[in-house]
Amino acid sequence: MSEASYPKDLLYHQEHDWVRLDPAGEWATFGITWYAQDPLGEVVFYDAPEVGSLLTKDESYAEIESVKAVSDVFAPMSGEVIEVNSAIADDPGVINDDPYGDGWLVKVRLSSVEEKEQLMDSAAYQALLGQ
User: Fold this and answer.
1) What is the Cα–Cα distance from 25 to 73, expressed in whole angstroms?
2) Where do runs of H (alpha helix) occur along 1-131?
């Protein structure tokens, strides 16, 4: 399992998801935070959305199953799924090992870039967590 961290180059959603915006702001990579994966324990399955699926901010778009529970994953921003991390299907534990790198979940063509204004930076997210 990875060490607790909250990279400063990401934006964070209150449901413990992160966003890495591409430089032009047209698409983004989504994943779950260290805080989200840690209490789940070992992740054993990721029920990914289909490429082409439309995601709506604050709504569930996937499920992650661990040895302890099944958890919904919420969209931090709205858009169309353009890529799913297929490596996770073979090794879902990478979500635990590298939640901000190889453990990313989907890439999304954003439909409303302005939604980023409703997300938190690393310091605000850590404050939400009481850290």
Assistant:
1) 22
2) 34-37, 87-90, 94-97, 122-128
Asked if 126 and 12 touch (Cβ cutoff 8 Å), the reply is no
Task: Return the bridge partners of 20, or none.
Answer: 29
Token representation of residue 50: 């289909």
Name the helix (H) or strand (E) containing 71: strand 70-74
Q: Which CATH architecture fits 12-118? A: Beta Barrel (2.40)
This prediction's pTM: 0.94
Three-state DSSP state, 60: strand
d(CA 77, CA 51): 16
Query: What confidence tens digit (pLDDT) does each residue in 48-93 have?
Result: 999 999 999 999 999 999 999 999 999 999 999 999 999 998 999 9
